[in-house]
Amino acid sequence: MTEPDTSALRTFAQDWFDALSHRAPVEQLLGFVVDDGLRMAFPEGTLLSHADVEDWYAAVGRIYTDQTHTIERFLAVPTESGTDVTVTVVWTARQLADDERLAFRVDQAWKLTAGGPDGKQRIADYQVGTLTPIPV
Fold first, then answer.
1. What backbone torsions phi and psi does residue 89 show, to the nearest 5 degrees?
2. Per-residue pLDDT averaged across 117-130, rounded?
3. Which of 22, 31, 39, 91 has the most other CB atoms within 10 Å of its CB?
């Protein structure tokens, strides 16, 4: 197994979070994830396809605004089938319903795999773990 290009993988993760923070078009987000075999587990539910990602993204857009995602910790470990990533991100947002500011430190575990005709890394598995509230 060769060592992963940690710099490129961290850039991939930052690009993903930047797309979320800037409410990029959903088509841009779909380029980060596989469709066949996808599993993304969020507190609000598990996504198993691009259609699920589209629905989730639309719902998040109706609930939150002014999101930011700041990577605090990033570790990439090669595996036989791709790369395991452990990331901690600080997520901030404003709830549209009551204008409340939220902030959480969020631990996540990803499995990346080279997918699609371009051979680029894609998220195949995305598990949101512990959410720790941060005072705002």
1. -130, 140
2. 90
3. 91
- To which residue do tokens 């452990």 refer? 86
Residue from 20, 16, 11 nearest 93 by CA? 20
Residue type, 39: R
- Can you tell me which residue has the tokens 């797309």? 19
Q: How many CB atoms lie within 10 A of CB 116?
A: 12
Q: 6-133 — its CATH code?
A: 3.10.450.50
Phi and psi at residue 127, to the nearest 5°: -115, 115
Q: What is the identity of the amino acid at 68?
A: T
Res 2: pLDDT: 56
Burial profile 48-81: b = 16 or more Cβ within 10 angstroms, e = fewer = ebbebbeebbeebeeebeebebeeeeeebeeeee
Residue 134 phi/psi, 5-degree rounding, is -120, 130
Alpha helices in the chain (DSSP H): 6-21, 26-30, 50-63
For residue 46, which phi and psi values (nearest 5 degrees)? Answer: -110, 130
Residue with the bigger pLDDT between 120 and 12: it is 12
